[in-house]
Amino acid sequence: MPSQHRPRTTRSLRLGLLIAAVIGLATGLFAWHQVRNERAIDLEDVQRRAHALAQQLSDRVLHALTLPDAQARALLQPRLEGYQRLLGYAVFRTDGRLLAAGKAVSDFADKLAGAARAAQQSGGEATQLTRAAGIRIYVFAQVLPVKGTPAGVLVVVHDVSYLDDRALARLAQYAFWVLIVSLLAVALVVGSTWFVYERPLTKLADWMRRLRVENVAESPPPGLPSGRLRSESDRLAASFRAARSTGRALSEAALHAEQVWTPERLRAHALASLGEAHQLIVVSNREPYLHQWRDGRQHAMVPAGGLVTALDPVLRACGGVWIAHGAGNADRASADAEGRLTVPPDDARYTLKRVWLTREEEQGYYYGFSNEGLWPLCHLAHERPVFRVEDWEHYRRANHRFADAVLDEVGKGKAVVLVQDYQLALVPRMLKEARPDLRVGMFWHIPWPNPEAFRICPWDVEILDGMLGADLLGFHLQQYCNNFLDTVDRVLESKLDWDHFAVELRGSRTRVRPFPISVQPWSERHVPADESLARQIAELKTHHQLGNAFIAVGVDRIDYTKGLPERFRAVARLLEKYPQYRGRFTFVELGAPSRTHIPRYREHMDMIEALADEINWKYQSEGWKPIHFLVAQHDAKTVHAFLRMAPMCVVSSLHDGMNLVAKEYVAAQSGGDGVLVLSEFAGAARELADALIVNPYDTEQFAEALRYGLEMAADERRARMQRLFRQVEEHNIYRWAANFLSALAAERTTVDETISTRKIAAS
Ligand code: F6P
Fold first, then answer.
1. 3-state class of 326 per DSSP?
2. From ligand 1's centre to the CA of 561, what distance in Å?
């Protein structure tokens, strides 16, 4: 959308032009009047001169009139010629005959005869301003009497073309000054409006935006056009801050009052809020279980990534259908003809329906538009997004595929559809266009950038419009909601309701709210505990030759947003600065290869492998190396064992929507006292305040945080971890899902009610 300042500039310019037009018109009229007056004065002057000349000649003419024509002409002829502006004279008898005329006027004697007649009729004088022989002439005719009886008429003719030229020159001069005055008026009006109104009001708008988005505590900007505006702004800011802190306090109190959510409680809640008639459908790109051929047999595996970690327990609890892309090479073989199978493979709780895409479609839609375009667009990791028109076409077509699969699944029934993540931004609108009665929620698992960053996307309007098909749109953080609404404000012609965080577009309304996603308690997963866990840990330590070193662990998809080089450099700096930890501190990175068809990901993998080698080469000693970079798709049991064995976990994302590894680590610490080192740029840092918060770009600070964690007193470790554990336990994934479903149900009810109220009012 164009800048918001533009309409104001145009308005002041329009005002300036209007004022200039009025001034121009008034001074123009005045100038016109002036020119006319001056011309009239000039004419009077000519008349005076003509009169005087007629007087000078009258004796000789009177005498000539008494003579016969030939003698009269001979007497008069030498005196009838003019000079310069006086063109000449003519003399008429009373019967209208021309007696004599100067050379310069004889050509238009008939016109002069008219003036002579007019003078005779008036019994004295007559004047005429007319054109003859291509010039403007002034004719003065005077009757000459002899003893009271008219004896003839003397006509004096002047060339007065110069009067027109003079009037024109004056007009041009006036016009020039009118133009100067008008331009000055425009400049004055535009300049003073900018100084007096626009500049202070723009500052006021910026201040209001900061107040809303960043919750600043500064007072309104100085120089507002009215004292009243200033005092009202002050009051508005105060009540805004008060409402915000009351809301925060109330919601904190309410949350603490509730108990821990369980799968059973979520299931009951889902039934109550959605009603039995609605089936639950989740649609995402990534599938929760993926089948691969290995040694001639199908193997099910759980893909890495927060989306699957979070939503699988929800579907296990509530049942329903999960529609996703079948990306595994044994996916077709492990599903029925319609791409369906029940999952988890060993404990069927819900249906997985796979959507098939061609390799070309997967390349354009998933690797291209989603992960080379939207992914870097939404993450501030200094990676340039790439947008290609053919990728966009695949993205649209693939979104249609997913939407069609959902509509197929719903048939004629009722359903609540939860659309997941940035790969499916167009699906909500597609669903609503086909079935306006569906309840559609969308959750965006990655950050939402500021409007300036998002507007890079050539299809920004289409993406926003697609998402705004949903009834409810969820992000991890309030900050992302704010950014999203700001983006809509800039990009779309829509109605924003900042009080309720809602957008109205094409007759539908979308609520936008934060839902910080979370994890399932480890106690519900079939992972080893007690002695078998101790055995597993011992085996892993032996297998990886970890010895008795203090272990810090990281678990990530290998992605440039995760800050792995920064993490390795902090480990190296720790060992450089505090040599006493060489041989006593080991960092284990469980890295899952991800999106490896994208060159940037392959380069990144090569780079971090080389970096780990370089650091190991520099510091390793017999039987010990500082970094164990274990690249594989690690299963949940292995991840859990590492999280339990490590007294420290490091999450160093450069930007991350939430980062569930941080919460997984805390959830694995039941009764434990591990230390979490967490990037301030991961969404999880907002909730996990007892972690050691670091800026991953600041290697010195990061290395110091590692040292602080290594040396932290047992009491402090325990106290911090207890608070972290309580936070994650209370705000688990079931609570997240329950909050989302309640909000979706509530939002929908409100709209239904509005519609039925309108219908009643209309009938
Ligand atoms: O944390 C969630 C998430 O990052 C998703 O946004 C993403 O879909 C997933 O994890 C992992 O990425 P992919 O599906 O490309 O493997």
1. coil
2. 12
338 Cα to the center of ligand 1, angstroms? 25
Residue 445 CA, closest ligand 1 atom number: 6
Whether 47 and 163 have beta carbons less than 8 Å apart is answered as: no
Q: What single-letter amino acid sits at 206?
A: D
Testing ligand 1's pocket by substitution, the residue of 367, 445, 736 carrying the most ligand atoms inside 8 A of its CB is: 445
Of the candidate ranges 253-267, 370-384, 393-407, 427-441, the one whose mean pLDDT is the lowest:
253-267
Could you tell me if the CB of 307 is within 6 A of ligand 1? yes
- Most ligand 1 atoms within 8 A of CB, residue of 284, 286, 659 to mutate: 286
CA of 365 relative to ligand 1 center, distance in Å: 14
User: Which residue would you say has higher pLDDT here, 320 or 54?
Assistant: 320
pLDDT digits (tens, 9 = 90+) for 75-123: 888 888 877 788 999 999 999 899 999 888 988 888 899 999 999 999 8
Question: Is the four-CA dihedral 353, 371, 373, 556 of positive or negative sign?
Answer: positive
Tens-place pLDDT, residues 611-656 = 999 999 999 999 999 999 999 999 999 999 999 999 999 999 999 9
Count of C-beta atoms within a 10 Å radius of residue 520: 21
For ligand 1, say whether the CB of 16 is within 6 Å of any of its atoms: no
Nearest alpha carbon, ligand 1 atom 14: 286
Check residue 735 and give its pLDDT. 97
Q: Is 286 in the pocket of ligand 1 (CB under 6 A)?
A: yes
Q: Which atom of ligand 1 is nearest to the CA of 286?
A: 14
Q: Is the CB of 699 under 6 A from ligand 1?
A: no
Task: Please check the confidence at residue 496 and state whether its pLDDT lies above 90.
Answer: yes
Instruction: Specify whether the CB–CB gap between 558 and 631 falls below 8 A.
Output: yes
Separation of 423 CA from ligand 1 center, angstroms?
Answer: 9
Do 329 and 293 contact (CB within 8 A), yes or no?
yes
User: Which among 489, 329, 510, 491 has a CA at the least distance from the CA of 419?
Assistant: 510
**What's the gap in Å between 510 CA and the centre of ligand 1?**
24
Paired tokens of 398: 């693939």
- Please state the φ and ψ torsions of residue 649, each to the nearest 5 degrees: -125, 140
Which residue owns the Cα nearest ligand 1 atom 2?
Answer: 306
State the first-to-last Cα distance of the chain, in angstroms, to the nearest integer: 39
Distance 331 CA to ligand 1 centre (A): 19
**Residues near 471 by beta carbon (within 8 Å), at least 6 away in sequence:** 439, 440, 441, 508, 509, 510, 511, 744, 747, 748, 751
User: How far apart are the C-alpha atoms of 337 and 708, rounded to whole Å?
Assistant: 57
Ordered DSSP codes for 120-151: HHHTSEEEEEEEETTEEEEEEEEEEEETTEEE
pLDDT band at 27 (very low <50, low <70, confident <90, very high): confident
Q: How far apart are CA 515 and CA 474, in angstroms?
A: 6
Say how far apart CA 228 and CA 238 lie, in whole Å: 15
* Per-residue tokens: 419: 């659309």
Q: Are 305 and 446 in contact (CB under 8 A)?
A: no
Check whether 152 has a pLDDT greater than 50.
yes
- Atom of ligand 1 at shortest range from CA of 594: 16
Of 287, 362, 421, which is best to mutate to test ligand 1, by the most ligand atoms within 8 angstroms of its C-beta? 421
Q: β-strands 502-505, 508-514: how paired? A: antiparallel
Q: With a 6 A CB cut-off, is 445 part of the ligand 1 pocket? A: yes
Closest Cα to atom 6 of ligand 1: 445
Residue 216: pLDDT band (50, 70, 90) is: low
Q: Are 424 and 284 in contact (CB under 8 A)?
A: yes
Q: Is 280 in the pocket of ligand 1 (CB under 6 A)?
A: no
Task: State yes or no: cis peptide before 344, omega within 30 of 0.
Answer: yes
| 751 pLDDT above the threshold of 80 | no
**Measured between alpha carbons, how far is 468 from 415 in angstroms, rounded to an integer?**
18
Predicted pLDDT at 238: 60
Cα separation of 160 and 167, whole Å? 12
